Amino acid sequence: MRLPIVAYGDPVLRKKALDIPQDYPDLGKLIENMFDTMYGANGIGLAAPQIGLSIRLFVIDASAYDEENEELKGFKQVFINAKILDESGENWVFNEGCLSIPDIREDVSRHQKLVVSYYDENWKHHKETYTGMAGRIIQHEYDHIEGKLFIDKLTPLRKALLKRRLDAITKGAIKVDYKMKFPLIKKKR
After folding, report:
1. How many angstroms separate the CA atoms of 72 and 25, rounded?
2. What is the three-class DSSP state of 119?
3. CATH class of this structure's domain 5-181
4. Burial 110-135 (b: 16+ CB within 10 A, else e)
5. Bridge partners of 58?
6. DSSP string, 165-186
7. Domain parsing of the chain, residue ranges
8. What is the pLDDT of residues 98-125, one digit of tens each?
9. pTM score > 0.85 for this model?
10. DSSP code at position 18
11. Backbone phi, then psi, for 150, in 5-degree steps?
12. Lowest mean pLDDT across 27-36, 66-75, 128-137, 147-156
């Protein structure tokens, strides 16, 4: 089931998410719905705060880009209670976007390499090193469960230049081809 994606301006996107217990109700269905939602919005990653849940869960499927980038071949993964243990290597800049901040893409600097500890959907623990584009995607989604957005990495001047566009997103004054929930649109009674 495709869920609405929470738009920029919703407070849930700014909360540090809570760990998920192993007996979290219907976790398998939630993960399935998150993948469905992500695919429906043509995304490669989706974090639980983006669907309104302040829990430490994100999903990634970047395998569609494996022809452009060999390291993404078969890169489909669920991350539960992820913790980045180390970030290293030279920072590199790449143009990023976000399903919660549609139609805005900006150059963002991130570390080349990271070590992350997480559980998969079967509650198997992993501690793995990721580099390049796979590492960048994880860092972007990880920021979501930490209450951060890619625009937080921009200069104050660049953020100021985007203010009108960000305000339009908050008010729902944009067009997207997937379901969104806008913080400043009141439901009719």
Report:
1. 31
2. strand
3. alpha beta
4. bbeebebebbebeeeeeeeebebbbb
5. 47, 79
6. HHHHHHHT-S--SS-EE-TTPP
7. 5-181
8. 999 999 999 999 999 999 999 999 999 9
9. yes
10. B
11. -60, -30
12. 66-75
Name the one residue in this structure whose structure tokens are 């043509």. 42
Q: Is 7 helix (H, G, I), strand (E, B) or coil?
A: coil
CB 140 within 8 A of CB 152: no
**Average pLDDT over every residue of 52-61:** 98
Using DSSP's 3-state secondary structure scheme, residue 161 falls into: helix
Q: Is 141 a catalytic residue?
A: yes
Residue 173 one-letter amino acid: A
**DSSP β-ladder status, 5-6 and 180-181:** parallel
Going by C-alpha positions, the residue among 21, 35, 22, 15 that lies closest to residue 143 is 15
- Residue linked to tokens 């243990």: 85
- The 3-state DSSP class for residue 112 equals strand
Give the active site residue among 32, 67, 141, 146. 141
CA distances from 110 to 45, 89, 95, 98, 153 (A): 17, 9, 11, 15, 9
What residues have CB less than 8 Å from 25, skipping those under 6 apart? none
3-state secondary structure of 113: strand
Rounded distance between C-alpha atoms, residue 103 and residue 124, angstroms: 36
Contacts of 175 (CB under 8 A, 6+ apart): none
